[in-house]
């Protein structure tokens, strides 16, 4: 997602949950169970999930500040005290996230990296899957949605490991009451593009 720098976006950097010092957020989360969305984009999904589940702590990780600015703007107008945000690549944060602290991980329409030699950059690449296992609580879940068949099929291979169980695999996921849609999902559904969905349990 490439967006030009928004002039207004700097105004939201001092928002309370958007601590410049990511270590403050991560040390707070060391003692708390939380749900994690990686690659939150403009944040429609995580904002609504946080609103719907005030007892759950959410962490949004997004590498692009320009995209995150939209989530910061929403929060500025209607703050939520259970949502934390870090503007970073997930790869730079893994060492700072404690073992067995994450209840659910959401991978919504992750970048497909279609060229074979770039597949290792996917959020579903093997090295990341191992980290997901480490940070997830026992019986924690990963919810993955994508329009991209190659990423979907590769993810199934990477999650076919002794310590994971694929509990649901769908090539044309039909929405159920309570589902929260991301910006990309809304866009794909409007174009009648089928949504692939995996639910994986850490065992
Ligand atoms: C295709 S967009 C999808 C955005 C949103 N999840 C949605 O479904 O509308 C993927 C997002 O993931 C972010 N992203 C990709 N790789 C990332 C990484 N390694 N760490 C953090 N964010 C990442 C990108 O900047 C982009 O905003």
Shape: globular
- Order of helix and strand elements from N to C terminus: HEHEHEEHEHEHE
In whole angstroms, the N-to-C terminal distance is 34 Å
Heteromolecules bound: S-adenosylmethionine
Low-confidence stretches: none
Taken as a percent bin, the fraction of beta residues is: 15-25%
Biggest sheet layout: 7 strands, mixed
Question: Could you characterize the architecture of this molecule?
Answer:
This protein is an alpha/beta fold. It has a single domain, classed as Vaccinia Virus protein VP39 (Rossmann fold, 3-Layer(aba) Sandwich), CATH 3.40.50. It has helices at 22-29, 44-52, 65-77, 126-135, 149-158, 183-190; strands spanning 34-38, 58-62, 83-87, 102-108, 136-146, 164-170, 196-202. Strand 1, helix 2 (44-52) and strand 2 form a beta-alpha-beta unit. It starts with 21 loop residues before the first helix and ends with a strand. The site of S-adenosylmethionine (SAM) has 21 residues, from strand 2 and helix 6. S-adenosylmethionine binds at residues 1, 38-41, 61-64, 67, 89-91, 108-111, 182-185.
Observed structural traits:
single chain; 203 residues; 7-stranded mixed sheet; Rossmann fold; binds S-adenosylmethionine; alpha/beta; 29% helix
Quick recap:
By secondary structure, this protein is an alpha/beta fold. It contains 6 helices and 7 strands.
Would you spell out the secondary-structure blueprint of this structure?
Elements: H1 22-29, E1 34-38, H2 44-52, E2 58-62, H3 65-77, E3 83-87, E4 102-108, H4 126-135, E5 136-146, H5 149-158, E6 164-170, H6 183-190, E7 196-202
Parallel strand pairs: 1-2, 1-4, 2-3, 4-5
Antiparallel strand pairs: 5-7, 6-7
S-adenosylmethionine binds at residues 1, 38-41, 61-64, 67, 89-91, 108-111, 182-185.
């Amino acid at each position: 997602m490439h967006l030009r720098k928004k002039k207004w976006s700097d105004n939201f950097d001092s928002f309370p949950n958007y601590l410049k010092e990511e270590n403050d957020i991560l040390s707070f989360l060391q003692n708390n169970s939380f749900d994690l969305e990686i690659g939150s984009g403009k944040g429609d999904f995580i904002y609504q999930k946080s609103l719907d589940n005030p007892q759950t702590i959410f962490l949004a990780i997004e590498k692009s500040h320009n995209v995150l600015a939209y989530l910061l703007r929403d929060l500025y107008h209607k703050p939520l005290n259970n949502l934390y945000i870090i503007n970073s690549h997930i790869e730079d944060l893994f060492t700072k996230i404690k073992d067995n602290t994450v209840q659910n991980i959401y991978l919504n329409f992750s970048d497909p990296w279609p060229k074979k030699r770039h597949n290792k950059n996917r959020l579903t690449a093997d090295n990341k899957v191992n980290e997901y296992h480490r940070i997830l609580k026992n019986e924690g879940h990963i919810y993955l949605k994508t329009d991209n068949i190659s990423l979907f099929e590769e993810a199934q291979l990477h999650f076919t490991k002794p310590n994971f169980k694929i509990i649901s695999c769908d090539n044309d996921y039909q929405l159920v009451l309570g589902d929260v849609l991301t910006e990309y999902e809304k866009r794909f559904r409007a174009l009648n593009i089928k949504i692939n969905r995996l639910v994986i349990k850490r065992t």
